[in-house]
Specification:
single chain, about 110 residues, mainly beta
Length: about 110
């Protein structure tokens, strides 16, 4: 049995296995405001709100996330998540998701 946890800020991949990884996303500068979007060119990305509150933005719509529901962002879709200071979000994605296959746009 392996047990992982993360109590820091921002995002941290806490576990990887074969072709996928699980990360924990918590409040930090990057996730405090809707000031950029990103898209993954090679993989979907799934989010599960575990604590606090979060808003998931996808191109022209946004979702107030509900706890314990899986939100799957399809490959190539521009998105961003904003979380409360007490939020914890589980993130599941391919283990090779990286800067090399992710694009970002920042708002002025």
């Amino acid at each position: 049995m392996e047990i992982y946890e993360y109590d820091g800020k921002d995002f941290c991949a806490v576990m990887q296995y074969e072709g996928w990884k699980i990360g924990m996303l918590r409040y930090g500068d990057r996730f405090s405001a809707y000031n950029c979007v990103e898209r993954h060119l090679a993989t979907d990305e799934a989010f599960v709100l575990l604590a606090g509150s979060a808003t998931l933005y996808e191109e022209d719509q946004c979702f107030e996330m509900e706890k314990c529901k899986v939100y799957n962002v399809k490959r190539g879709l521009w998105h961003h998540i904003v979380v409360s200071r007490d939020a914890t979000v589980l993130v599941i994605e391919n283990s090779d998701t990286s800067k090399e296959n992710t694009e970002r746009k920042y708002f002025l």
